[in-house]
Write a structure and sequence with these properties.
Layout (H helix, E strand, L loop, with lengths): L1 H32 L5 E10 L4 E2 L4 E5 L5 E6 L5 E8 L1 E8 L6 E7 L2 E4 L4 E3 L5 H7 L1 H4 L1 E3 L3 E5 L11 H5 L5 E3 L5 E3 L5 E5 L2 E2 L13 E7 L13 E7 L6 E11 L3 E12 L2 E24 L5 E24 L5 E25 L2 E29 L3 E15 L2 E5 L2 E10 L2 E13 L3 E24 L4 E4 L5 E18 L5 E18 L4 E19 L4 E12 L3 H4 L4 E4 L2 E3 L8 E14 L2 E13 L2 E8 L3 E8 L2 E14 L4 E15 L1 E2 L2 E2 L2 E14 L5 E10 L2 E3 L2 E3 L2 E12 L4 E8 L7 E6 L3 E9 L3 E11 H4 L19
Parallel strand pairs: 1-8, 1-9, 14-17, 35-39
Antiparallel strand pairs: 1-2, 1-5, 3-4, 3-6, 6-7, 10-11, 11-16, 12-13, 14-15, 16-17, 18-19, 18-52, 19-20, 20-21, 20-51, 21-22, 22-23, 23-24, 23-25, 24-27, 25-26, 26-28, 27-28, 28-29, 28-30, 30-31, 31-32, 32-33, 33-36, 34-35, 36-37, 37-40, 38-39, 40-41, 41-44, 42-43, 44-45, 45-48, 46-47, 47-50, ...
């Protein structure tokens, strides 16, 4: 295995060097490939809905008048498209996008460059549910070198409750037994909601029904915060785009103790878009775990059997208001209230064995995680010159009140209690300027001030049997504050999109100041850092169906509160957990080359990537006392990951298609901390294969198999994980109602196994939760304007449209 790992590292490095050479040659020779005098090109822009927002990943197809496909393209994140190397003449232009009516129009192309003066605006489909069902198999996910976008409406997994269920379809994402998310093996990610950093601690508490889509951004440009060495996950909340008054409601029931859903009412008219949304989630499950630890220095061992019960209750209320002015200016206000609450109950049976004998202890832990979050976003976009320049101002505020009361019993005796929590707060204000330079490209720049802070206090008391009183314990208590301010600015330039070769280049500078203050044991830590984050994206269209792209980015992860908080949390009497207040930021440089091909419903994206992180952050365990462990975080020296990611879909017919998503990489870490060896190396794989069958016009059957190979980390190794999900979705009652039935982990094979063997101890831990669940879901969708007038017949969507994405 070691020889194979080294061979893979050498192979991927060699292939990347060769591809870079090929890429350079293609760029140099590309002008000679496109010098035919009779060739023409067509470029334009696609917008969606009443607000004319850019339609990203829309399909644009050019046809002969007899409907024979000539060429196609997909819009970028600005809604722009270019179709090159075509003959002059008269054609049919067909633009389509999930949830919208297909737009057909005749176009006459002259020799040379043809630019559409007005954007193609897509109107919302009056048969939005039916369209979502029919196209679910190939519109669930789109990918390019910058990001992967997962559409909630096209995913049957959305009925299972949380956003983490949606993310599993992306091969670059792995999720462990505690719902900790990693992108290409790195768990240090930046979480955004509607493009804004949030104080929400976990995505597992956000119902998927409250979202429109989720973006996994692996190579963000300079406009994004440079935080998150693993990448960015951006949750886009649900919005209603149809004119008039609309009502949308979703209800999902998991047999027998899980339910989630949402209801949204919206009003769109006269430039106003108003929406009020409520979503809720209640999940109850049991988790069974076994753990065995052996300490080499004392020959002592600890065997634990842990039966856990978890009840999760989440309520979210959101209000969104958009006003579009005749001048093109846009005002947006977004308010959210979130209240996730988790009640945990653990029954732990401990068998302690040592050379001097042993003992048996039964411990019960009862503790709450209660978080109340309020968020507000305000944005005003001022159009300085229509289709040329604009200025945007955006402010955001997010504050969470966290509580964690707990009670602990040993052999039926109340022995410990604790109460406390934190108040993480984010505030930001930024301004962005965009200037289009006709025929050349788009220049962008901006300034941002971001501030985050937290006040954390926990009080722990132990019961003294002698005095029959509660004694304050300083070791398990904490009182601290943390404030961090980041001032940043960026410049970005992207070339005109109507060329076969395009590029985007940018740089971001961030200056941060951090002040960490421990009150109970007086200590203050003040740090400053200047971080430069350049970004580069090069893209060469090889044909109308294929392209080759190269990306380079630099990113940083500043330690999070759990990683730096020195508060000691007693998991049980032999395991403690704490942060490291001296933790340094992790920095990473990322390179990626991607090939993209799409044709007639088939698609392929293959990418080679390399990331090199310095001062990488990892969790380790050390010996505390004689027979106890202390979990904490340290900085390693370097972490290198090189791999290949392949996402493809093959459409055999209008009834059947197969998708493959895979990520194979070699990971290597080096370093030492407090005499702990942080060196590790391994080849790792994660992926899934999906089969979609559409037996009826408004029905879709999905089968998805997931596999994750054994994973290697400093001090820890996990075993392979595999499971299978199935689901069926169908439109009912004239497409105002859709029904879903699905089964997660149908063979009940999903489990979590972890091992560790170092010079201090050996450990084996396995865990199994209630992963096999039958889900039944209903979605109701009605629009008053559609009921009060005859429905227009939508233009038929061609089943053979080119889809340049998954």
């Amino acid at each position: 295995m070691a020889k194979f790992a080294v061979s893979l590292e050498i192979y991927t490095t060699t292939v990347m060097k060769r591809l870079l050479t090929i890429f350079t040659i293609i760029f140099i020779l590309s002008p000679f490939f496109n010098t035919t005098s009779a060739q023409s090109s067509l470029s334009g822009r696609v917008t969606q809905g009443q607000n004319s927002a850019p339609a990203e990943f829309a399909s644009v197809v050019l046809k002969e008048l007899d409907s024979k496909i000539v060429a196609g393209a997909m819009t970028d994140n600005k809604g722009r498209f270019t179709i090159a190397n075509i003959k002059s003449g008269e054609y049919l232009l067909q633009v389509s996008f999930i949830g919208y009516r297909t737009n057909n129009r005749k176009v006459v192309l002259n020799e040379g460059k043809n630019v559409m003066e007005e954007p193609v605006n897509l109107k919302e489909s009056e048969d939005i549910l039916g369209e979502a069902v029919v196209t679910a198999s190939y519109s669930q996910k789109q990918s390019d070198i910058e990001r992967t976008k997962i559409n909630t409406a096209g995913s049957i997994a959305a009925s299972r409750g949380s956003i983490t269920d949606l993310l599993k379809s992306a091969s670059s994402v792995t999720i462990d037994n505690d719902n900790k998310i990693s992108i290409r093996g790195n768990s240090n990610i930046l979480l955004l909601i509607d493009g804004i950093p949030t104080t929400v601690g976990s995505l597992d508490g956000i119902p998927a029904s409250a979202t429109e889509s989720v973006e996994i951004i692996t190579n963000p440009d300079a406009k994004y915060d440079s935080e998150g060495t693993g990448g960015i996950i951006n949750v886009i909340t649900k919005k209603e785009k149809r004119d008039g008054i609309s009502l949308v409601s979703t209800l999902n029931y998991g047999l027998y103790t899980r339910v989630n859903g949402d209801i949204m009412t919206a009003y769109n008219k006269n430039g106003w878009s108003l929406a009020l949304n409520y979503s809720g989630k209640y999940h109850q499950e049991r988790i069974q775990s076994d753990l065995f630890r052996y300490f080499y220095s004392t020959s002592a061992s600890i065997e634990q059997n842990i039966a856990s019960s978890q009840k999760q209750n989440t309520n979210i209320v959101g209000f969104n208001a958009i006003k579009r002015f005749e001048s093109g200016d846009l005002l947006t206000i977004n308010l959210k209230y979130m209240h996730p609450e988790i009640l945990n109950s653990q029954n732990i049976t401990n068998i302690n064995t040592s050379t001097g004998g042993g003992n048996f202890i039964n411990r019960v832990n009862e503790f709450h995680h209660i978080r109340t979050t309020g968020e507000a976003i305000g944005e005003y976009k001022m159009v300085l010159k229509k289709e040329i320049s604009d200025l945007t101002f955006r402010g955001s505020f997010s504050r969470t009140k966290g509580e964690r009361p707990g009670e602990y019993y040993e052999d039926g005796v109340f022995v410990q209690k604790s109460d406390g929590g934190g108040h993480p707060t984010n505030f930001s204000f930024q301004s962005d300027y965009a200037q289009k330079i006709p025929g050349i490209g788009l220049a962008e720049g901006g300034l941002k001030f971001f501030s985050r802070g937290n006040t954390f206090k926990t009080e722990t008391y132990l019961f003294d049997q002698t005095s029959q009183s509660w004694i304050y314990n300083t070791f398990l208590s904490s009182d601290l504050t943390h404030d961090e301010d980041i001032l940043s600015g960026y410049l970005n330039f992207s070339s005109a999109s109507n060329k076969s070769f395009t590029y985007k280049i940018g740089v971001r500078a961030e200056y941060s100041t951090s002040f960490f203050r421990i009150i109970e044991n007086p200590e203050e830590i003040y740090t400053t850092k200047l971080f430069l984050s350049p970004s580069l994206l090069l893209k060469q269209n090889l044909s109308n169906q294929s392209s080759l792209a190269f990306s380079f980015t630099r990113r940083i992860t500043r330690p999070t509160y759990p990683q730096i908080n020195p508060y000691v949390n007693m998991i049980d009497k032999t395991v403690f957990e704490t942060g490291n207040k001296n933790l340094k930021p992790e920095e990473v440089s990322k390179f990626e080359i991607a090939y993209n091909l799409g044709n007639n419903g088939h698609s392929l994206m293959a990418s080679l990537y390399l990331s090199s992180a310095t001062d990488f952050i990892t969790q380790i365990s050390s010996l505390y006392d004689q027979n106890s462990l202390m979990l904490t975080y340290v900085n390693g020296e370097k972490s290198i990951k090189s791999g290949i990611e392949i996402n493809g879909r093959y459409k055999f017919s209008s009834l059947f298609s197969v998708g493959l998503n895979s990520n194979l990489y070699y990971g290597k870490t080096t370093g030492e901390s407090n005499n702990f060896d942080l060196n590790s190396s391994s080849v790792m794989f994660s992926g899934n294969i999906t089969a979609n069958i559409t037996p009826a016009k408004k029905g879709d059957f999905s089968l998805q198999y997931f596999y994750t190979s054994p994973q290697t980390f400093p001090q820890f190794k996990t075993k392979s994980v595999h499971y299978m999900d199935i689901g069926y979705k169908r439109g009912l009652i004239k497409d105002k109602l859709s029904a879903t039935i699905s089964v997660s982990d149908i063979f009940n094979t999903k489990r979590w196994d972890i091992e560790s063997d170092n010079r201090i101890y050996s450990l084996k831990n396995n865990s199994k939760n209630q992963s096999r669940v039958v889900w039944i879901g209903l979605t109701f969708n009605i629009n008053k304007m559609q009921l009060s007038k005859p429905a227009k017949k939508d233009e038929e969507a061609d089943g053979a449209l080119i889809k340049l994405g998954l």
